[in-house]
Design brief:
- The protein has 182 residues and is mainly α.
- Helices cover 69% and strands 0% of the residues.
- It is elongated, with a radius of gyration of 20 Å.
Length: 182
């Protein structure tokens, strides 16, 4: 629905633009820009790579591979939509390719996948990092709110693979023989 509204410049897209204009630069850029940067490849990918290495070291190579595959699919989903919609940016109407947000997609898949590989107890932190990224992108004026919402909707299915691999791909610890009774 988000894509359709952006393509036809429907009422939801117009509301999105009004909301964005009201939000941009309502917090200092020194706050919004670092939050937006959490979705940069140079920040999110090392987090996922460390989690993948940890999972592989713990014998969960399939789970690590599925997390890497989910991350590799992000640009394959995001880039064609950016080219197709050619949506201009909130602060750069001459530039195109803002819908959906690649930074939000990167942050979401990297941080949530990493939690599935390390500990599900970290899931609130992954959600917080993704929300900070999305909020920073909107408040800084790098993306419209629909851009980040579309990325979340687009990437939710990608997270099923790492989640399933984390749940069912665990290697059972080797059985230890019972001590002999004398």
């Amino acid at each position: 629905m988000c894509t359709w509204q952006v393509l036809v410049h429907g009422p939801l897209a117009r509301l999105d633009e009004r909301v964005s204009r009201a939000l941009v630069d309502t917090v200092p850029r020194a706050v919004s820009e670092p939050a937006a940067d959490l979705g940069n490849l140079t920040v999110a990918l090392p987090v996922l790579a460390c989690a993948m290495a940890y999972a592989a070291w713990r014998g969960r190579r399939a789970a690590a591979a599925f997390a890497g595959l989910a991350m590799a699919l992000v640009p394959l989903l995001v880039v064609p939509l950016k080219l197709w919609t050619a949506r201009p940016g909130p602060l750069e109407p001459w530039a195109h390719g803002y819908f959906p947000s690649g930074h939000t997609a990167t942050a979401m898949v990297a941080y949530v996948s990493a939690t599935f590989l390390v500990s599900r107890r970290l899931l609130p932190l992954a959600v917080l990092l993704t929300a900070l990224t999305a909020t920073g992108l909107v408040l800084r004026g790098f993306h419209w709110p629909l851009d980040v919402l579309a990325s979340v909707a687009l990437c939710l299915p990608l997270l099923h693979w790492p989640a399933l691999a984390a749940r069912y791909g665990r290697v059972a610890p080797p059985a230890t023989p019972a001590p002999e009774k004398r």
